[in-house]
Specification:
It is built from 24 helices and 30 strands. The protein is α+β, with helices and mostly antiparallel strands. Helix 6 crosses helix 8. The longest helix has 26 residues.
Length: 793
């Protein structure tokens, strides 16, 4: 600073110029009030008229000042407050107590209720004080002038005479247009308190963690003292300066008779008592859900026709957004995942849960730390979904039932077999994963229970991959899908929220309710949106949905997902494991809640040897759902469907291949037995059940196929038996019988077998002849001869 700058005369001159510029409008206004006397009076009238023309084009409609939006959980607690540049909570004037109003008026505009927008007395008083001090100690702008300057941007902020005159005129027009209470209310909400905080309501929350109604005298005085220079008197930056400024306000209140001397002394002695309470974007609870919610609003044209309009509505529209999030369940999910996967370099888990009846999103576990990664693993927001593995198979089941494929449909289950996918994948070799296997032919129930890949790829080919894509889209999968026959194995990326929502379609008897996180949105007392459920539509036939849900109960009761069993609460679900175990899943439902759980590495697909959906993801789902179901009664789920009866075709006489095809087409499971027979090799010589019988579709039919070798058996011992009994035994054993006779004088031996050839125990082809020798009684010589026995005894 130069010596000229420090001279008292120069300081006084600066003070005079500043106050004159501040008060020029008031001087002109005062002149306009003088009675017109002669030529001087005419001059005054001209000045007044010119003054009245200033700022006539300024629209005095109070602008809608930006107000922060607040997001609430389902229990009413605050999840987050959102704003752009101005963190502000609008309050009504009757919500501000008198001590706070008096503190602001005392230090900013004590004559507010007396002047018409410009305070001539205040200007003169400031002039005298500043001249005496040799510097500017006190300004002269009224609250109305400050409001005019801050709210109506056309006025500007430059320190020029023209701008000051315009400000003065707008202030006077405001006083004509609005009541004192309206002006003061807007001012209290518009004024800046530092630290990104706008408005007295937000300042009370931020600095003292309290409602504006509850501010004490020391607190109110400190906030009022911030208005003139929020950074200079910031209690965060300089506590001593803040206390000194606070005490200036208290002293001013005492001088104006607003408080007693004792009250002032006590207030000045009080500590600052700060309780800094973050109320802005950076303090969001459950940030993954909050980001999901923000994305929902910013994509909803009900909140603005353009994205820019929706951003303004969300961050500056003062919205009160009430959501479906259940904090207790959300905390439980975060805790369960953190406990099971504590290694920051190891796999992580994501969970999404929805209400089956409405689609309400109850919880979203999207990642370990939002500050480290903003990719929401539960919704794919900021990244992508993950391959779902066999958890995708239920969409193939729905497609199959819609195509009329019966529950008893059987396919060959052998791992490693080639399936002809045609235009949907060519010749595809399919392997059964570690969490599912099979051999021979199996039906739909067994394939679902064991998660047999080979079965489902063949089923996908039969129903058509495009049909599976269409079904998945109807049921809630929004991620892009390609119609390859491997789609049934979950080779496309989806998200836990999509899977939970889609499985909810099954739990809701075929009705899909789009997942939603907002129940109500209000803005300044007006309800902009209210909904109790997402957009719901019957997308799958009720019986088909129930049958698939019933089939999926087998997975939990005795299949690959037994770790998800919840005891008293019936459950259906499906495990999922990719071929390299890089992504493992369990998606499932009770009657009331559906959830999907994924486990893998967030940064990339990293194989996890030995990990399966049933052993890694299902236990996470189980622990989470135990919390989700607390207090909810057990409700039944659809029963496991039973296949209908069908007529067994007669395949005797067909070749093995022909018989197999006939039985499979008739929805039976062929089981082959090779037997010796005289018919050519591979010809069916017998079956059980027999042709024409009725049996459960999908059940086994045993076919006995000739091995081309004549059957053999051991010749039974018939010596000593009557001729008739011996012949019967030999014929039953498959042999021809030749009878020869031998005389005997022992009447007791008459008609019994004396010998046989071949002898007993000899293995002989069936159909061969066994000779037996039968005794024939003859009387001794001299007696009458006995009649001979019949030739075929």
């Amino acid at each position: 600073m130069t010596s000229d700058d420090r001279s008292p005369a120069r300081a006084v001159l600066k003070a005079l110029l500043l106050v004159l510029s501040l008060g020029v409008g008031a001087v002109i206004f005062a002149l306009a009030l003088l009675p017109p006397v002669g030529a001087a009076g005419q001059a005054v009238l001209r000045i007044a008229d010119e003054f009245n023309q200033v700022a006539e084009d300024v629209d005095l409609a109070f602008p809608r000042i930006p107000e922060r939006s607040t997001i609430y959980a389902s229990d009413g607690t605050v999840l987050a407050t959102l704003y752009l540049d101005e963190n502000r909570k609008i309050v009504r004037l009757n919500q501000v107590d008198d001590v706070t109003l008096n503190a602001v008026l005392a230090i900013e505009d004590a004559r507010f209720y007396e002047h018409p927008g410009l305070d001539v007395q205040g200007i003169l008083r400031a002039l005298v004080r500043n001249v005496r001090a040799g510097e500017v100690e006190q300004g002269a702008s009224t609250i109305t002038q400050q409001l005019a300057r801050n709210v109506f941007s056309t006025i500007g902020t430059e320190e020029t005479l023209a701008r000051k005159v315009q400000e003065a005129r707008v202030a006077m027009r405001l006083e004509d247009e609005y009541s004192k209470e309206e002006i003061l209310e807007l001012y209290m909400n518009e004024v800046y308190f530092g630290r990104g905080v706008y408005g007295i309501g937000t300042a009370a929350e931020y600095y003292f963690g309290t409602n504006v109604r509850n501010l004490t005298l020391p607190q109110a005085a400190m906030l009022a003292g911030l208005i003139s220079s929020p950074e200079t008197y910031s209690p965060v930056n300089d506590k001593e300066a803040a206390i000194a400024r606070r005490n200036v306000v208290i002293a001013r209140m005492e001088a104006l008779g607003m408080i007693t001397e004792a009250d002032a002394a006590a207030a000045m002695a009080a500590p600052l008592g700060l309780d800094i309470t973050q109320v802005g974007n950076e303090n969001a609870r459950f940030p993954f859900f909050v980001e999901y919610l923000k994305a929902e609003i910013l994509s909803d044209r009900r909140f603005g026709r353009t994205e820019r309009a929706r951003i303004k509505t969300l961050f500056q529209g003062g919205l009160k957004i009430y959501t479906t999030l259940e904090p207790t369940l959300q905390r439980a999910g975060d805790r369960i995942v953190a406990r099971r996967f504590p290694d920051p370099r190891g796999p992580q888990s994501a969970i999404a849960a929805v209400d089956t009846d409405t689609g309400a999103v109850k919880a979203l576990v999207g990642g370990r730390n939002f500050e480290e990664s903003q990719v929401n693993l539960a919704t794919g927001q900021g990244g992508t979904g993950r391959q779902s593995g066999s958890a995708f198979k239920p969409f193939t089941l729905v497609a199959a039932f819609e195509q009329g494929v019966p529950l008893g449909k059987v396919y060959k289950a052998a791992s490693g077999q080639y399936v002809q996918c045609g235009q949907y994948g060519g010749r595809y070799q399919v392997f059964n994963a570690g969490d599912g296997g099979g051999s021979g032919y199996i039906d739909m129930a067994a394939a679902t229970q064991g998660s047999v890949n080979a079965y489902f790829v063949q089923l996908a080919v039969e129903v058509g991959p495009p049909k599976i894509v269409e079904v998945a889209g109807r049921m809630g999968i929004r991620s892009p899908l390609e119609p390859f026959c491997s789609i049934t194995l979950g080779t496309h990326e989806v998200t836990p929220l999509e899977m939970a929502s889609a499985f909810g379609t099954l739990a809701n008897h075929g009705v899909h309710c789009r997942p939603f996180g907002i129940t109500k949105v209000e803005a300044r007392g007006k309800v902009l949106l209210r909904q109790k459920h997402g957009r719901c539509e019957q997308v799958v036939d009720r019986q088909i949905a129930d049958d698939v849900a019933g089939l999926l109960r087998l997975v939990v009761s005795s299949g690959t997902g037994t770790a998800a069993n919840l005891g008293q609460w019936p459950v259906f679900g499906k495990t999922g494991t990719t071929n390299d175990s890089a992504d493992v899943w369990f998606s499932g439902c009770t009657s009331q809640v559906c959830a999907a759980t994924w486990v893998g590495h967030p940064e990339a697909r990293v194989p996890m040897p030995g990990a399966y959906g049933g052993t890694v993801a299902a236990p996470v789902w189980h622990d989470f759902m135990l919390v989700a179901m607390r207090g909810l009664p057990p409700r039944p789920l659809p029963a496991t469907p039973q296949p209908e009866a069908a007529q067994v075709p007669d395949v005797v006489g067909l070749s093995r291949a022909e018989a197999t095809d006939v039985l499979v087409d008739a929805y039976f499971t062929p089981v082959t037995e090779s037997v010796p027979a005289t018919q050519p090799i591979d010809v069916v010589v017998g079956q059980s059940p027999s042709g024409g019988a009725s049996a459960v579709a999908g059940s086994q039919v045993v076919i006995r196929v000739s091995n081309g070798k004549a059957p053999t058996a051991k010749v039974p011992n018939v010596v000593g038996l009557t001729a008739g009994s011996a012949s019967a035994q030999l014929k039953n054993a498959g042999y021809m019988v030749q009878v020869k006779f031998q005389k005997t004088e022992d009447k007791k031996l008459d008609g019994r077998v004396a010998a046989q050839a071949p002898g007993s125990g000899v293995r002989l082809e069936k159909g061969a002849t066994v000779a037996i020798v039968v005794y024939r009684y003859e009387k001794p010589k001299g007696g009458p001869p006995s009649p001979p026995p019949p030739e075929d005894a």
